Amino acid sequence: MNHLSGAIPPSVGNFTNLKGLYLYSNSLSGSVPGEIGNLMQLTNLEIDNNQLFGQIPRSLRNLASLNRVHLEQNHLTGNISEVFGIYPNLTFLDISHNNFYGEIWSSWGKCQQLGTLNFSMNNITGSIPPEIGKLYQLHKLDFSLNQIVGEIPIELGNLKSLNYLVLNGNKLSGNLPRVLGSLSELEYLDLSTNKLSGSIPETLGNLLKVHYLNLSNNQFRKEFPVELEKLVQLSELDLSHNFLGGEIPPQICNLESLEKLNVSHNNLSGLIPSCFEGMHGLSCIDISYNELLGLIPNSTGFQYDPIQALRGNRGLCGDVEGFQSCKAFVSQKHVFENKWFLIIIPILGVFALLFFVIGIIFGRTKRTSKENKGSCENHRGLLSILTFEGKIVYEEIIRATKNFDAEQCIGIGGQASVYRGELPSGEVVAVKKFHSLLLSEISVQREFLNEIKALTEIRHRNIVKFYGFCSHPRHSFLVYECLERGSLAEILSNDGSIKEFSWIVRTNVIKSVANALSYMHHDCFPPIVHRDISSKNVLLSSEYEARVSDFGIAKFLKPGSSNWTEFAGTFGYVAPELAYTMKVTEKCDVYSFGVLALEVIKGKHPRDFISLLSSSSSNMNLSLNEILDPRLPLPSRNIQDKLISILEVALLCLEESPESRPTMQTVCQLLCK
């Protein structure tokens, strides 16, 4: 794909009437020229996702007309209290993922129209000024991953429109202000990895719209806050790595939308609430490293890795591998009433430890051979194809990929690499191996399990076929069909073979992706949102048949649930509403599909075209020739009509308001006319 490179020329300052400068997601380098301060009419400055470095010019202070500023994902630096001015019309500012320093300027409170303020992942110091509490229009506030100290100012309780508050990864201290419980519109709250102390205020139970709450890695004490039972829309709760004591209150089972619960590494005692068994939506529980005892409930939340989720609690028992059986203790009530239980458990623990030591002594010689066997699972007949026992699958994959040799690697990502492997049957598969050094990270483990969950529940001709997975001490991987032509992104960037990717083929690819998404949204229960539809995640067979792939961050939409989650996706394809809310709906995929459809027609990412769309107050009157990939000859009249129809549908999908976008079912119907 074509990208701008080099530096931003100083001559850009000659365009004094310019209102929008859109240079994002290119390969620009060098510093931002001081002449940019001449653009006194500038309202939109978007130079994010480049390789720009150096000091931001102080002339930026002069641009009082600025409305939206995107500087994120560069290597820019400068003192934030000196390079920025007061912008009365500013609604959006994102300088995240840079090297800015200095303290947060109290005068930011004068930018009364701010809706989004993102300073995350910089080197900002000092404290949060109380004046931030004057930004009454603020929807998103993100100061995460800096060096900010001091207490959270109580003035933040004035931000009644706030949906998203993220202050994690700083050095904040003191008590958590009770006034945060008055933020009635708050949906996402992350204060993790700070030095906050005291008790968790019961006023947080008033955050009735919150979907994500993370207070982990602090110094909170006292008991588990029972008042959190009111948060009926809460889907993820993390209170791990604190000093919370007492029991896990059974009222937590009132959280019907809860999907993930982490209270590990605390001082919790007593029994695990038996009502966990009735929380069918609770897919992930981590209560490890507490002082819990009694019967382990039969909950789906422990199904993936019960040992990891329960370890560090010496008093637990149940029909779970790695834990002793409770035998006569049929119910938790019986366990609690039996006074001898508290005596038996330590004794059994001593015997277990004794047998463990004996096992180490006599089993030392078997250890190596045992570790070489993987715990592999089969799906859709992989084992029958190989005609081997399950334990041999791991070894066959190792052979097929030549022990994951670099020559077999066909793709590299941030968390995994993809290898080509030929099985003894002659079938060629793609093996997605997760980087071993990252396997213990929660985010990687989540992606690994999420992809398995998604692909074992869906069957469609336009979704990549899933053969199996393997979780092993040395390597963990997923096995798929191998699509010979690679990703759509690779096809579009290869000028040498682009003519084979004809207009007919392109229209079929667009329709195939639409069919896959329609199936996921309307024929699966619960519906599945992919969340990362992009050209790199659409694979093509030798016959240019399209398959949607990479379900690592897919989201299952639970009816009646909030479906709130962390930000994810590929920049340039993510729906605009995710800039200020993390609520996932099918319409997020619809927007990404619109971007993808335009990309297939244009032959490159349509970022400039989309920017023109968002800045245009009336319908654009562009000819088809201005949009078509110039590397192909002009299509026939019949094909032109089909491309125009696709273009019209894509524009509907790119509507800024999610409610105005069509469903994927409607998209398929429109494309088939």
From TrEMBL:
One of its GO terms (molecular function) is signaling receptor activity. It is a single-pass type I membrane protein. Its EC number is 2.7.11.1. One of its GO terms (cellular component) is plasma membrane. Its main location: membrane. Residues 404-673 form the Protein kinase domain. Keywords: ATP-binding, Glycoprotein, Kinase, Leucine-rich repeat, Membrane, Nucleotide-binding, Phosphoprotein, Receptor, Repeat, Serine/threonine-protein kinase, Signal, Transferase, Transmembrane, Transmembrane helix. It is found in: Membrane. It comes from the Eukaryota. GO terms for biological process: hormone-mediated signaling pathway; post-embryonic development. The chain crosses the membrane at residues 340-363. Pfam families: LRR_1, LRR_8, Pkinase. It catalyses: L-threonyl-[protein] + ATP = O-phospho-L-threonyl-[protein] + ADP + H(+); L-seryl-[protein] + ATP = O-phospho-L-seryl-[protein] + ADP + H(+). This is non-specific serine/threonine protein kinase. It comes from Citrus sinensis. The lineage of its organism: Eukaryota, Viridiplantae, Streptophyta, Embryophyta, Tracheophyta.
